[in-house]
Structure formats: C-alpha cells, structure tokens
UniProtKB/TrEMBL annotation:
Annotated segments matching region Disordered: 159-185
Recorded superkingdom: Bacteria
Compositional bias per record (Low complexity), positions renumbered to this chain: 162-174
InterPro entries, sorted: DUF2569 (IPR019690)
Regions crossing the membrane: 12-29, 68-86, 98-120, 132-148
Protein name as catalogued: DUF2569 domain-containing protein
UniProt keyword list: Membrane, Transmembrane, Transmembrane helix
Length: 185
C-alpha cells in the first residue's frame, strides 16, 4: 500500500470535523428556530420595527433580518458541507475554511450593529462572547489543519478533474515508412 493510501479516509482528526459537522446544524436549529419563529409569530418583530412603539429603533429591522438570514445560510451551508465531507469532494477543505472564517467577520459586525441599538442590556453578553470565542478557537485549529494535513490532501479528491495526458505516439512501422519516403532516414 502506498504512503498516500495510508492517509486516505475519514479517520484520525477528520472524525472530529465530521462530528462537529453533524452536531452543528442540529445545534443551530435547536437554538435559532424557536427564537426566530417566536419573534416573527408573536408580534415581537412588529413591536421592535414599527415606528411609534416604545422599543422601536430604525436598526432593529435590518439587524433582525440580517441575523435570521445569516442563520439560515449557516444552516444550509452546514448541510452542504456535510454532503461534501462524506462525498470526500475536493471542494470540502476550501468550503470548510470559508465556513470557519465567515463567523470571524460576521459576529463582530453583528455585535457592533447590536451595540448601536439602546437595548438596556450590553450587546457583548456572555453568550455572544462565548460564541465569538468558540469561532476563534475553531478557526485557529481547523483552518491550518485543512491546509497542511496529509490526510485532508489524500482524502478530499473526488470530483477533481484529472489532467488530460496526451496519448503517446508510437512511431511504429508507418512512421518509419513515411520517413523513408521523405528521405530523412
């Protein structure tokens, strides 16, 4: 068995990546669906976004729609990454890096936007800081792993087009005969 064959497969540290990918959409749905469902069905959204109400602020609507859209995209993206992971598709490492890097941009932006709305409580609550810290730690561990791991390079190869090789021309007898006719042999 070649050395590269030893590295192929969803084994080693990739097991942890797979477990994380399986847990992530379930955890996100468990946290986000009740929150956003209640907000959009119990009148909270209208109360926060309708001018003249006590809690109205012009940034509530864009912030809440941004958060709901971001969570929906994260959920869909995590399911797509799960497919790429188990298909061992060559797009998985790059997609996973983007998936890990995106919260490092979006979470601080979201916290900053939330801090612009006077809510009576700090936008940098412990839950938000914990989520940001979790994203930073995950990115610090798994982004370098996706770039340097031999197992990642050997495993995620499906769907990659193989470079076309030129068929080798065998000079054969016709080549010799044509060169004799030309007088070059």
């Amino acid at each position: 068995m070649s050395n590269e064959e030893n590295w192929k497969g969803l084994k080693g540290w990739l097991v942890l990546v797979g477990i994380g990918l399986i847990i992530f959409p379930a955890r996100l749905a468990q946290q986000s669906v009740p929150l956003f469902y209640n907000m959009f069905t119990d009148g909270s959204f209208e109360y926060l976004t309708t001018p003249g109400t006590e809690s109205y602020h012009p940034l509530w609507k864009p912030l809440l729609l941004f958060e709901a859209s971001y969570n929906a995209l994260l959920f869909i993206g995590s399911l797509f990454l799960l497919y790429l992971f188990f298909a061992k598709h060559h797009f998985f490492p790059k997609g996973y890096v983007i998936f890990l890097f995106l919260p490092l941009l979006i979470l601080p932006l979201d916290l900053w936007l939330a801090s612009l709305i006077p809510m009576g409580e700090d936008a940098l609550d412990p839950a938000s800081l914990k989520e940001l810290a979790r994203s930073v730690v995950a990115a610090l561990i798994w982004i370098p792993y996706m770039f340097v791991s031999k197992r990642v390079k050997a495993t995620f190869v499906n769907g990659k087009s193989q470079p076309q090789q030129e068929p080798q021309q065998n000079p054969g007898p016709n080549f010799v005969e044509s060169k004799k006719e030309e007088g070059s042999l």
